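Thread: Fe-S oxidoreductase, structure

OP (GT): Posting the sequence first so everyone is looking at the same thing. Length is 236 residues per the record. Can we get the structure tokens written out before standup tomorrow? I want them in the notebook alongside the other entries.
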Amino acid sequence: MSGLRRRVASVRLRGGDGPQVARARRLLDLYLAEAERHGVPFPEIARQVRAGLPALRIAGAELQGQADAPAFSEAACAPGCAFCCILAGEDGGVILEAEARQLHAALAPLAGAPDGRAWSDRACPALDPATRTCRVYEARPMICRTYVSPDADACADVARGLPARGPGVVGAQGTLLAVQSLGRAALEGAAQVPTYALARIAAAAVEGVALDAALGSARHRPRVLEDERTRLAPAD
């Protein structure tokens, strides 16, 4: 475990250590130190990092701490708005393995039922086309939990492919990706740390595709995680 902690401390990500990466590095080390104190063996920690459990725990705590921030208290988000559920391209967003598995498990029992694509062909398959609310709200990934907007009209513009100010994810999603990037770099040569396309996992689940096949079809190329992390990284 000490070797993994040294790797986390020494690996360098594209673009260097901005504030978000530096903080993610400290928090991941704290997670690993806690595991070390409890005698968690390396194979189990590698499994947790691969699945994204440290990243989800760290980002989840950050998101909980932001619950009273203006981004949420002044958000225009409301049930049935759903413009944020119109997904970009074939990808729909970066999710981690634990999120992909949880989303698939929640959606699989709904296979064959009308889904969000009956409302808009680019809508998330997790959406209920009648109510335009998420059918698996408790299983939604971090990218959904962190997306907020002060202006519903701006969300509608974004859904139409128009530029708009306001909608976007809060910092916890960037933290999630930074922690996962560090974990991937630290485990290089020992374990693969994949990410997945939200839209493809959701579509596969509601179309009755088994989990392993869904994961295989939705798995990203390695560079996608770093591309998305650097895109969301705050300016120094």
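GT: Both are above now. Quick notes for whoever picks this up: Residues 2-232 form one domain. The longest strand covers residues 94-96.
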